[in-house]
Amino acid sequence: MLAAMTATVVGVSVVAFVAVLIGNYAGVVDGSGIWPVVVALPLVGFPIGFLLIIALIVLNAVKRSRRARADS
User: Fold this and answer.
1) What does 3-51 look like in DSSP terms, one character per residue?
2) In whole angstroms, how far apart are CA 40 and each of 1, 13, 51, 66?
3) What pLDDT digit, counting tens, does each position of 17-63 carry?
């Protein structure tokens, strides 16, 4: 579940980042409508995704440690 959350947050942030790049190139990002949210999404989503990846690594390490202790 944590891996799916991580992939979703990072995926949505990448899509928003690409949308901002395309919008800037096309000249439609003018600060009105939904564009402020689209511009801010990668600024929030990438750090959250990074923290979720760290949490996933830590939880997997703890799970492997417990499994190794139980097997020995």
Assistant:
1) HHHHHHHHHHHHHHHHHHHHHHHHT---S-TTHHHHHHHHHHHHHHHHH
2) 25, 9, 18, 40
3) 999 999 989 888 677 888 999 999 999 999 999 999 999 999 999 99
**The tokens of 7 are what?**
């992939």
What's phi and psi for 27, nearest 5 deg?
Answer: 85, 20
The pTM of the full predicted model, rounded to 2 decimals, is 0.83
φ, ψ (nearest 5 deg) of residue 7: -65, -40
Task: Name the more confident of 26 and 72.
Answer: 26
* Cα–Cα distance for residue pair 38/22, rounded to 1 Å: 12
Q: What is the largest CA-CA distance in the chain?
A: 62
